[in-house]
Amino acid sequence: MGLPELRGRLAELDRVVVAFSGGADSALLAWAAADVLGERALAVTAVSPSLAPEEEADCAALAEEWGLRWRAVPTDELADPAYVANDGDRCYHCKKELMAVVGPLAAAEGATVALGVNLDDLGDHRPGQRAAAEAGAVFPLVDAGLTKDEVRRASRDLGLRTWDKPAAACLASRVPYGTPVTFGVLDEVARAESGLRRLGFRALRVRHHGDVARVELPVAELEAALARRDEVVAAVRAAGYRYVTLDLEGLRSGNLNTALLTNPASRARP
Fold it and tell me: What is the number of alpha carbons within 13 Å of residue 23 lying toward its C-beta?
């Protein structure tokens, strides 16, 4: 299973609107859709305070490099109190808003909404997948049997520069469940992470804990961060945080989901 199966699945769909975040998964899907379907493929990037500015810029750059039909469309998940409340189903409400915006675009194209979900994603707590599926979205990478490693391998073989791009979940994923997601919080996280990227750190998370920023970097980069302690602290404090901590366990994508295992009350409310 792999790229040939993905091409075949896209050919079956005939017309698609790809939710394009610029990460390795959605990038491969958008590239393959354009390659197989040409003008019958549209890549759409949802723009909101939960999307890092660098990611929006990279989506635009990739669209130009690869000749994608591409649009950036605004979403307003912050207008939904259920999203702002930030319980365990936050991602459900986010994807519901995405589908409410992208769905009509797909209908106008006579197309199906396609998301860059891979096989490995199915084992994590990702209620957004449920919201997307309920609204009629499909997951061609899953249909093609592609894991995350296979997505990266196929992307590298195709010469796509996104093959080794670090995962970059939405900024709301930096906020512990139960802490309201607001524009101010997302802006602080975005500015802190942008500051660290300017220092040369690629893979990172700034977890928001009130006036404390918990910085996660790959374990191999902890020593470099400590050697540049003053710069790291300055970059994060410039975003508005009072205290800057470095997590000695290193970068763990999705680690805030562990709270759902120890505190079931943080899951979705009935």
Answer: 18
Tens digit of pLDDT for each residue in 13-24? Answer: 999 999 999 999
Query: Which alpha helices (H) appear in the chain, and where do they start and end?
Result: 3-13, 24-37, 53-66, 81-85, 90-109, 127-134, 140-143, 148-158, 183-198, 222-227, 229-237, 258-262
Q: C-alpha angle with apex 45: 40 to 49, nearest 5 degrees?
A: 165
| Burial class of residue 189 in the structure, from the number of CB atoms within 10 Å of its CB (0-12 exposed, 13-18 middle, 19+ buried) | buried
Residue 44, strand partner residues? 19, 71
Split at pLDDT 50, 70, 90, the class of 260 is: low
β-bridge mates for residue 122, sequence order: none
pLDDT at residue 254, as a whole number? 63
Per residue in 110-144, pLDDT (tens digit) is 999 999 999 998 876 778 899 999 999 999 999 99
CA torsion sign for 245, 250, 252, 258 is: negative
Q: Give the span between the Cα atoms of 219 and 104, in whole angstroms.
A: 44
Question: Tokens standing for 21?
Answer: 């975040």
